[in-house]
Amino acid sequence: MGNTLAIIGMALLGLSLIYVLYRTIIGNPVSRRVVFVYVAFAAGLPLFMDLLPPVHVTPDVQALVDALEELPPNSKILAAFDYDPPSAPELQPMAEAFFKMAFKNDLDVIVMGLWPQGPQQADQAIAAALLDPDVQAMNPQYGIDYVNLGFQSGNEFVIQRMGSGFKAMFSRDQRQTPYDSIPVLQNIVNFSNIDFVMNFSAGKPGTVEWVQFAVDRFGATLGAGNTAVQAPQIYPYLRANQMVGLLGGMSGAAEFEKALGMPGAGSTMLLSQISTHAIVILFIIIGNTAYFRTRKRKNG
Amino acid sequence: MKREIPLIITSIAGIVFAVSYFIPHYPFGKAENIFGDWISIVSAFAIWLGMLNLGEVSLRKIIRKTEGWQLGVIVLVSMLVMLIIGFSSVFNAISSGTSHMAPGTGLKWMYDYTFSPLSATMFSMLAFFVASASYRAFRARSLEATLLLVTAFFVMVGRVPLLDPIVNALGITDFPFFSAVADWIMTYPNSAGQRAIMIGIALGITSSSLRIILGIERSHVGGDA
């Protein structure tokens, strides 16, 4: 029922754009408030649908999934959470899928953040992952299978300092447990003891800094999930093989979930992004149609 | 001396970081670690400084009753509430040996139910402004604007499964054409442009850094450039 109503709503929304086109062509464009209403419906209506969009997994996402799946059990992954709530719609689904995969594959995850809110986002992602029945079957334990070291100020210099010793930057975890008393951190001195670095980033400090310091200087293997806005800046590093793979925006999250076989928030919310993209494109087309019609009339 | 000492510290730190990148051994490695710890500490103080500055600006606004002073009240009250709840959560966590962000703590509640939705709301407004601006201003007025428009079209339809499923369902092709075009744009023209920008920025940073390390550029300590 919800699906049908939402689809009917979307169809009516599309048809009503003909009126917007007419108004724009006669030189009476709709106000920005009307545009806002269209965007609100385009983003909101798909949330009532339980359809999964047909997602095509791109090579960059598949390469990251392959690299993660190849890690043997008990491999150490450093997960850097460098984002805050505004970017959560894009990055949180990636983080949740990442934790589900890591826990199911019995990988050890060490969480940290160069953004103050990053470790909190990681806690939320872990809580969501722990609801998965397959993850519950693995029964991951804090301190043994994963740990949250919290936030450390200093931007990229934190990464640089971690090159000589993680303990120098994180003497205790978020629960104030001393570094040496945490089982999962036993024998972890620096990047040479880490099998994979996974970075979720929405800006600076973020993936660029992880490439420049952890990869280039300390030889870490890096994969990243970025917001759609930031992803274009990362392509030069990806194409130079300084990273194994990249998840870009919500479509990257949906591809990641599909490649892992774990459909989640990224896949369902992608419908919202698709319809919003469609509305923006249609508004651009309407605006330009009106512009060319007006120009032709003036020239004629 | 008020200007010389910061200049000397800047020069030494700059030289140490530059040299230790290539020679990460004693004494440069050790010095780099010391400066790295300093940066972490100074950055932590910078957060406090920023907060105090925001408090001072808001307070001044309220006292002088300048335009929008009511927003200053909201800022100060929000800041104080968050600080009190934050510190109490941290002290409780230390005494009980749990996380200050554990479920049930005041800070966790504030984060989940005020900070997260409010900041996400601010960011989500972008979609509305982008759509409105696209409708009113994004026109193919020149060759450059047309190129930008065409590129934007392919990236927007290619980065999400928008046109490919339709094209594939109509049987025109079973190849994700639009996704491939978007990927090509990101891999080649985008990467080339990004690299050019990055090289330009890197050269600019290098020359600025050299000027600062050598003490030629002094504006950061209140002197003339």
Short description:
The complex is a heterodimer of chains A (300) and B (225). With 300 residues, chain A is of the alpha/beta class. Chain A contains twelve helices and six strands.
List the helices and strands and how they pair.
The complex is a heterodimer of chains A (300) and B (225).
Chain A: H1 2-25, H2 32-44, H3 59-69, E1 76-82, H4 88-104, E2 108-113, H5 118-129, H6 133-138, E3 146-151, H7 156-162, H8 166-169, E4 196-201, H9 207-215, E5 222-226, H10 231-239, E6 245-248, H11 249-260, H12 265-299
Chain B: H1 4-22, H2 28-64, H3 69-96, H4 106-137, H5 143-158, H6 164-169, H7 177-213
Helix pairs in contact in B: 1-2, 2-3, 5-7
Mean pLDDT of chain B, to the nearest integer, reads: 89
Series of H and E elements of chain A: HHHEHEHHEHHEHEHEHH
Taking the alpha carbons of the first and last residues of chain A, their distance comes to: 52 Å
Compute the number of helices of chain A: 12
Order of helices and strands of chain B: HHHHHHH
Query: Helix/strand-derived class of chain B?
Result: mainly alpha
CATH fold title of the largest domain in chain A? Rossmann fold
- How many domains comprise the coordinates of chain B? 3
Q: How much helix, percentage-wise, in residues of chain A?
A: 40-55%
What's the number of extended β-strand segments of chain B? 0
Number of domains of chain A: 2
- Give the CA-based shape of chain A: elongated
Count of DSSP-assigned helices of chain B: 7
Radius of gyration of chain A, whole Å: 23 Å
Shape of chain B: extended
